[in-house]
Write a structure and sequence with these properties.
Elements: H1 39-49, E1 73-75, H2 92-111, H3 121-145, H4 171-188, H5 192-195, H6 202-222, H7 235-252, H8 255-258, H9 274-277, E2 291-295, H10 307-312, E3 322-324, H11 326-331, H12 350-354, H13 359-364, H14 394-403, E4 441-445, H15 446-459, H16 465-470, H17 472-478, H18 501-514, H19 520-526, H20 548-551, H21 558-566, H22 600-605
Antiparallel strand pairs: 1-3, 2-4
């Protein structure tokens, strides 16, 4: 394999504040002989390894728009992978970036030389952070490429062809290696309380281990018998590990301490769903235990991003016009714990769609009353029937109509909405006007552990009412959803095979809790759920002329009437935004697109590599 790396970076100054070190680039080059020989040098180096982790950028909507690679977001700039448009060269960036980061990580292990007499809990925890990061990047490769060479050491420093003839390990072996690294990390790391979640910690490593084991167990179960089947598959082994790691986490951090709820929210949540929303629109998560590992931004230090500004102006995808999907909206329960019938006529009413629903729906998808476009004067979204002369006295009429602020269907830029559903998740209600902002980014949450544990338990036949009461039920309680024992939902998302009522509700909960956070495609892939993509193109809100959404626009405005006339709808009046772009739906190829292609040039250089199926 050829490994392409720029001149190796060393790391910037020591962590001098709680913000900024994740995004600051190195200033000097290390000396192999002396650089990693003291605690301060080790910390400086490890700080630099954080740079490659996911972050919000100066420009772009980052993680909030990633799920256009799934059925959660519909975008004009659709994801080419889920449309089957990748070529043999499309895996290059993911492959090379991950191996570059792994080389940086393994440099640490090769040149770490703190004398044993000077080692302490801090240097041990820093080593644990590096084990975590090596696991993180191998997990990225496992999810995307399956069988890969494991970079367990600082390979051939000169990157010669001979030194890089490294065979792939089976995906099962890769997963076990990742879990081994995470177990090393768990043994060494400080707990979250030491740095308030600003550094990698023991609890975060346990959650990542649960996610790795769940991903591999699911892949091995659902891809059995396909071209993507794992060698010597043993899904039970991995599901058992999920529960083992979960038991360790819950012993450290019971659910009552781990979830951010109305009863312990430091930001003063007063309504169902608000404590959930506060996990995405606040600046400092030090006092939020659920935010196990998070990234702090600080305008005063120039560590900032544009996500808040984009969300405030209605942008769903910074690359082009987009909108959240009806499928995502339909996933959420009623507040009484019942699932919906999407064909019910009440859901043609935009406002009734949100009435008495799971609090996370209000906080994820923009609806009437939620802060919308941000400027010097804040205007909340308001979908209501536009009134005309004679309906009210003229002064009252003008005032009434001026408050109507429906989804932004007009315009040519990326703030134009395709579905009627704007993103609410992450909208900072304190934001007024700025070019950039500094809300924090939570990378690992406690809620992920609850979801993983429940799913693994159901796969093992151990998902008792006690398990559900300790995992799924508290997630619903914090969002204002009454608990009801699972029953079969005939309208639940069709993954191509039957699911138990328990599993339907676990998967529903996962989609509701983790929406727009980058999990959805990985879930579809590990569940072998291509049926939700192949031949599908999604829908938006109801835009029939009898509906309140259509009637919230001024019919005397010829320009807006033309805009509405140009919005494609299906035969039942639901917005069909990709009708002309993808008339046959997404072209995801189940026999090929579950894994990315290994870059051909790397295969040429490393003759031991074998290409993924059907590339």
């Amino acid at each position: 394999m050829i490994v392409r790396f720029a001149a190796f970076f060393s790391i910037a100054a020591l962590l001098s504040s709680c913000a900024g070190f994740l995004d600051r680039y190195p200033l000097t080059e290390p000396s192999n002989e002396t650089y990693l020989s003291s605690e301060s040098q080790v910390q400086s180096y490890v700080n630099g390894l954080y740079i490659a982790l996911p972050k919000l950028t100066q420009y772009g909507s980052g993680v909030r728009a990633v799920e256009k690679n799934s059925d959660n977001i519909l975008s004009e700039k659709y994801d080419v992978r889920i449309n089957g448009e990748y070529t043999a060269f499309s895996g290059y960036a993911d492959w090379s970036t991950a191996y570059q980061n792994l080389r940086d990580v393994n440099y640490f292990f090769a040149y770490y030389m703190v004398p044993e007499s000077q080692e302490n809990g801090n240097t041990a925890s820093l080593r644990g952070e590096v084990f975590f990061l090596r696991a993180w990047w191998h997990f990225e490769l496992l999810k995307k490429f399956g069988n890969i060479p494991v970079m367990d050491a600082f390979w051939d420093g000169n990157a010669t062809t001979e030194g890089l003839q490294i065979p792939q390990k089976s995906r099962k072996e890769v997963a076990l290696f990742i879990l081994s690294d995470l177990e090393n990390a768990i043994d060494l790391l400080h707990e979250r309380s030491i740095y308030n979640g600003l550094r990698i910690n023991k609890e975060a490593a346990l959650v990542l281990a649960m996610n790795v084991a769940l991903f591999e167990g699911s892949w091995e179960k659902y891809h059995a018998g396909s071209v993507f089947a794992a060698d010597n598959a043993d899904p039970v082994l991995f599901y058992e590990k999920v529960m083992d790691y979960g038991d360790k986490l819950f012993a450290m951090m019971p659910c009552s301490e781990g979830l951010n709820t109305m009863w312990n929210d430091p930001f003063g949540a007063t309504a169902p769903g608000e404590s959930f929303a506060h996990l995405f629109n606040q600046k400092d998560y030090s006092a939020v235990p659920e935010a196990l590992f998070w990234k702090k931004y600080d305008m005063s230090q120039g560590v900032q991003h544009s996500l808040t500004v984009l969300l405030g102006s209605g942008v769903v995808d910074s690359e082009g016009a987009a909108g959240l999907s009806k499928s995502l909206v339909d996933n959420y329960l009623m507040s009484d714990g019942n699932f919906i019938n999407p064909a019910d006529v009440r859901f043609r009413d935009f406002n009734l769609t949100f009435e008495k629903r799971d609090g996370r729906l209000y906080e994820t998808v923009m609806s009437t009353g939620h802060k919308f476009r941000s400027s010097s004067i804040t205007r909340p979204m308001k979908v209501a029937e536009y009134l005309y002369d004679g309906a009210l006295p003229s002064d009252e009429l003008e005032q009434y109509d001026s408050t109507i602020n429906p989804p932004r269907f007009n315009g040519d830029g990326n703030s134009r909405n395709l579905t009627g559903y704007h993103t609410a998740l992450g909208v900072d209600t304190t934001y007024v006007s700025s070019t950039f902002w500094d809300t924090g980014l939570v990378l690992i949450r406690y809620a992920e552990a609850l979801l993983a544990y429940a799913e693994a338990a159901e796969e093992l036949g151990r998902c008792t009412s006690e398990v559900l009461s300790g995992t799924i039920k508290p997630l619903r309680a914090r969002s204002g959803v009454e608990w009801k024992d699972p029953v079969h939902d005939p309208n639940f998302t069709d993954y191509g095979y039957p699911l138990t009522p328990n599993m339907q509700e676990i998967r529903r909960e996962r989609r509701s809790e983790l929406a727009l956070q980058g999990f959805r495609l990985d879930d579809i892939l590990r569940w072998r759920g291509h049926k939700v993509l192949t031949g599908q193109r999604g829908r938006g809100a109801y835009l029939g002329k009898d509906g309140v959404l259509y009637r919230s626009f001024n019919m005397n405005d010829a320009q807006i009437m033309q805009v509405l006339a140009d919005i494609p709808v299906d035969e039942h009046g639901w917005i069909d935004p990709l009708k002309s772009t993808l008339p046959s739906g997404y072209g995801f190829r189940p026999e090929r697109d579950y894994l990315l292609p290994i870059p051909p040039e790397d295969m040429y250089m490393n003759r031991l590599l074998q290409q993924n199926p059907n590339w």
